[in-house]
Amino acid sequence: MNQSKTMYAAIIQAKKENRKLLAVLIDPEKIKIAHIPAFFKKIHESIITHVFVGGSTDEGNQLETVVKTIKQHTKLPVLIFPGSHEQITEAADGILFLSLLSGRNPTYLIEQQVQSVAKLINSTLEIIPTGYILIDGGVETAVQRVSKTQPISQEAETEILHTALAGQFSGKKLIYLEAGSGAKKMVKPEIIKKVSSQLQIPLIVGGGIKSKTQLNAAFNAGADLVVIGTAFEENEGFLEELKR
Ligand SMILES: CC(C)=CCC/C(C)=C/CC/C(C)=C/CC/C(C)=C/COP(=O)(O)OP(=O)(O)O
Ligand SMILES: O=P(O)(O)OC[C@@H](O)CO
Ligand SMILES: [Mg+2]
């Protein structure tokens, strides 16, 4: 049930006009279904433009129920941010078709993607090829544990840049710099700046962003879309600070 395959075009358009985008990340394992209506009331009063749904794991197989409920309460685009090929539902509008480019684990470079095709082959989801780059956020994160890969050090700026450009040259439509959910340190603005200034495709940045100052630092450094999950889970007051 997509919005006629226009979500990527809208991201490109926003980048062109320097309109910054903000996604709330909803973890299907953590959100309470009954809380979705009230949560989305606040989301609609905020500067949030996108809804991402996914988790490094989805033990209770909650994703589809969560997405269906969300779709009843919002017109914002809903994109799956999958931790595995099992996290796919037609109830969403699209899917970030991730490949974990920072790691060297074939399971997350290509096997998960092959496994997902049975569900995607007749799908109407907008599929957006995304190069996903895990960067050290100062704590061992869920993505690191699940994918059994190491993040790239924040000191290795050239390796980060070259990984992002290798993604672009391979045909990825988005690059996602990820410090990991609940990271202690967000991706450094200097890294965001270095990558965004060389990259032609839109840049997503997420992990450990907990304040307006950090959000603006990411935007000013060149992030086109920022993702925030944990900070809203822990403190909805922060969401209320981001009024339109
Ligand atoms: C293309 C398809 C169908 C799947 C791709 C599968 C790949 C390559 C995933 C990349 C590695 C991975 C495990 C990503 C997870 C991304 C994600 C949803 C992170 C959010 O993590 P949380 O579940 O919020 O972590 P916490 O539980 O620590 O908060
Ligand atoms: O939960 P936080 O730390 O906001 O991270 C968001 C997202 O980038 C995690 O995959
Ligand atoms: Mg999380």
TrEMBL record:
Phosphoprotein as UniProt keyword: no
Any one Gene Ontology BP term: glycerophospholipid biosynthetic process
Residues that coordinate or bind sn-glycerol 1-phosphate: 176-182, 207-208, 229-230
Enzyme type, top EC level: transferase
Keywords: Lipid biosynthesis, Lipid metabolism, Magnesium, Metal-binding, Phospholipid biosynthesis, Phospholipid metabolism, Transferase
Its biological purpose: Prenyltransferase that catalyzes the transfer of the geranylgeranyl moiety of geranylgeranyl diphosphate (GGPP) to the C3 hydroxyl of sn-glycerol-1-phosphate (G1P).
Binding-site residues, Mg(2+): 27, 56
MF terms (GO), sorted A to Z: heptaprenylglyceryl phosphate synthase activity; magnesium ion binding; phosphoglycerol geranylgeranyltransferase activity
Protein name, per record: Geranylgeranylglyceryl phosphate synthase
A single cellular component GO annotation: cytoplasm
Domain of life per record: Bacteria
Species this chain originates from: Kordia antarctica
Reactions that this protein is recorded to catalyse: sn-glycerol 1-phosphate + (2E,6E,10E)-geranylgeranyl diphosphate = sn-3-O-(geranylgeranyl)glycerol 1-phosphate + diphosphate
PANTHER family named among the record's database cross-references: HEPTAPRENYLGLYCERYL PHOSPHATE SYNTHASE, PTHR40029
